[in-house]
Amino acid sequence: MLRPRRFDREIDPGPVQIQARRVHFDVAGIPLHWIPGHPVASHMVSMLNIVLPAGERWFVQTFDEALPFVEDQKLADDIRGFVGQEATHADVHEQVLHEFMEAHGVNAAPILAQVDHIFGGPLAPPETTDPRRRMNHLRERLWLIAAIEHYTAVMGDFALNCAWDDHNADPTLVDLFRWHGSEEVEHRCVAHDVAVYFDDSYISRVRAMSVAATMLFVFFQRATWYLVKSDPSVEADWWTFNRMRMRDSKLGLLPHFRHLFGTSTLAYFRRDYSPEDLGSTAQAVAYLAASPAARAAHL
User: Which among 127, 151, 122 has a CA at the least distance from the CA of 58?
Assistant: First the structure.
């Protein structure tokens, strides 16, 4: 299925109700290098199946904690839709982790241990009963989620417009990441709006992005390198691995790090930053209406 292209003139879909969609992906028999001839791109994108479930369940837990404090009905509805989508993302990626990656012999335990430590340790709700300390910690977590969601929106827009189709990537996994990416573009404003609602602070925004950018860069590099060096069919040292990553970025199979962690991050530091500037709601909604998995789940 060809990706919906961006156009200079798009039809504004108007207000979009954020809601979870039932999907199912049959990943049996898909090769581990699902972008043929590009193991680094395949592993880097597949790595999200390992990292995302714990992170997205942490999103859900944090937003559930915040929801009782939200008196704005529109924002509360957006939070509920966001939570439903993120919970579905976590379940689907966990299914793909087991049925696709582990089925190919990938040992995800070392990466999962690091992810679980972060989200179950420093980023877990504090044990204190002091309401002020709990609220301050909640505000910090909400801004961190907003910063991470900046990157998921950038990557969602990339997934919708990248060159996977031109390199014969497996259509089921293409659909998986485009379905997820479309929903990230669709709900790209929610986390930012929630963080501003609780703590409209530029300093908090900058501090959270400093943490998020460092954390995500390390995860992308370390986790993908682990998958590459654990793959017996790939012979590459650290420098070869990064050259392969840069080559795949030039081909449009991966986002350029200089954009993802460079220009994109600098844009977040602008005082007039708005997630509305990331991606196209019209394109995202069009893909979600045509996604093979979303359509099949309703048959």
Answer: 122
